[in-house]
Known about the structure:
The chain contains eight helices and seven strands. It is α+β, with helices and mostly antiparallel strands.
Amino acid sequence: MVDKEKVERAIKLLLEGIGEDVTREGLVDTPARIARMYEELFAGMDGDAKEYLGRTFTVQDNKMVLEKEITFYSMCEHHLLPFYGKAHVAYIPNGKVVGLSKLARTVEVFARRPQLQEQLTAQIADALMEDLGAQGAMVMIEAEHMCMTMRGVKKPGSQTVTVISRGRFEEDTHLQEMFFKMLGR
Length: 185
Ligand code: ZN
């Protein structure tokens, strides 16, 4: 749960820290506004992927399920600047599947907290293995990091790509190839 009062105080202090006058018109409501916004941006802090991956349907065919191009927005935990892009999520069912919107919800739960792209990728794959009981999971994330583009090395448009495979995907390169083929790579 975001402590809005605490965030509000912190933002005020931060603005003072950079030499701003927090009483001027444009800034006077900013701390409260950011506190409200953080409730949304960090909503994943209270979320649990089990909530979505626990609601399953039975299937006969354990064929690969792929949901691609899931847009997400997250916050880099090193700079508290956004990173955002697309997640591609695949799994091999073990007699159980979830509604496709639940995969997007799962991405959301892990994206809406201070994050690292590598960790986000792994957490989604692990949730599919543990909470859905999948036989295998493969997740690819392509994202642009504001901490790379607006500061430091300043390389706008550069994409960071991370891939994680678990279970049957880890053992079977043929399945991995199928994943990339289905993505059109
Ligand atoms: Zn960063």
